[in-house]
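Input.
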Amino acid sequence: MGVIQRQGIKSSLLNYLGIFIGAASIVFIYPQALAEYGLITFLTELSIFTAALSSLSLPLIMIKFFPHFSDETKQNNGFLAWAMLANLFGFLLFAGIYFGLRGYILDFYADKSDLEKGHIDYLLVFTFLLSWINLFNYYCMLFQRIVIGTLADFLSKLARPFLVILYLFNYLSISQLVQGLALAYLGIIIILILYTQRMGKLFLGFQSNVLDKKLGWEMLRYSGSATLLILFSTLGLQLDRITVSVYLDMEANGVYGIAQFISNLISIPLISLGSIITPIVVKHFKDGDIKSIQQLYQKSAEISTIAGVYISLGIVVCIDDLYQMTANYQTLSSSIIVINCLVISKLLDSVGGISRWILEFSDRYYWGVSFLGLSVFINVSLSILLIPKYGLIAVAISNLCAVGFYTLSRMIILYHFYQMWPLTRQAFASLGLGIIIFLIMNFIPININPLANLICKGLMISIIYFSLIYFLKLSADLNQLVNNIFKRFLYKTKK
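Output.
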């Protein structure tokens, strides 16, 4: 677990630094430009979906079949070069479809605000850029290097508020704001390429005759299901923002985007774990080592649940104080119910550990595709049914139902076919602690000012929660870390 811990810790720290910037942006910047923030998030979030669609399931194919190509003496048999060629082909195919449907797309947005109507063609630019970011990010993951991908994400989070500030001070027009974000993505691609070169893995030569018929047929068969898997998973992640943009307006999209950003804090530890563990899981499946996968499964669920409960507590207890510090409290405070639903949704996903990654790269991946498709159907159906009456709250409730269904389905499938189960006594205990601490915090009156409230509540939650986790020995890793720090402190004082 040494490499996993190091990469996971570095990735999480960088993620939380990005979150600090994002949180400051939510408080001081984005509420002053909700419609403009809604526009750039609409374009970038939708392009995440279209980039995944144009990739033709390339990221999953890269992870699952790289062990068959891996050979440093033969430059990995031209794996990167073939992947780049496939990525370019996928984008050109998508571009042809886009231009064929462009008239219908413009007609669809004809009755929307002029703010996004004139910039819909930037969707093609962002799709191209994000497809290459994804390719090099997943390629680095194959060598258990996830920090560079986190750095890329951090830089995009840094660019967004910087560009919005320039827009607010009239240094940029709305078009230049979008163009600036595209240039930031281009810079990220260059950084990823340079990092790949620095690793000594930038092999651009093609190797022919590296595939036999059996492997070629297996890749082709997997690619069909993988395409659906990426389509459904990306649609599931971005569906809320697309739905809000279509059925409501860009200001509502900005409000929901802020709520989603805050709730996404809960997923960071799990995503970091999943990114670094995935290549290891693939290798264990190839070797038939199910026992090792089960150990990783339970350990990931334990860590992500403990971390998820802590972050969830911080959000639900402190969210009103955070919104009071913004310039648009009245608008944002109406989304507190939305945030609570999204928090529960993310916490449920954390309880499932790395079940999503395990199922995606198992021999039973088609079950994951089927249930993920059903969860997307649940999300879409409930949203269309409930949005006219409940607005943003309907979108959050639909998300919660879909995520809960898919998480439980993954856990049941893995238990049925592999006898793997993520939940341990420690995970259940940490969930119980979270409920108890939440009730305690609601009975303690803290009403100084928003900033002081945030600090006091945050400190109280941290001290109570982690003290109980330590003394109840719910996390062997946390106890070992604290004991090592304590021993070093005693050693230095004696010295």
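The chain has two domains: 1-210, 289-495.
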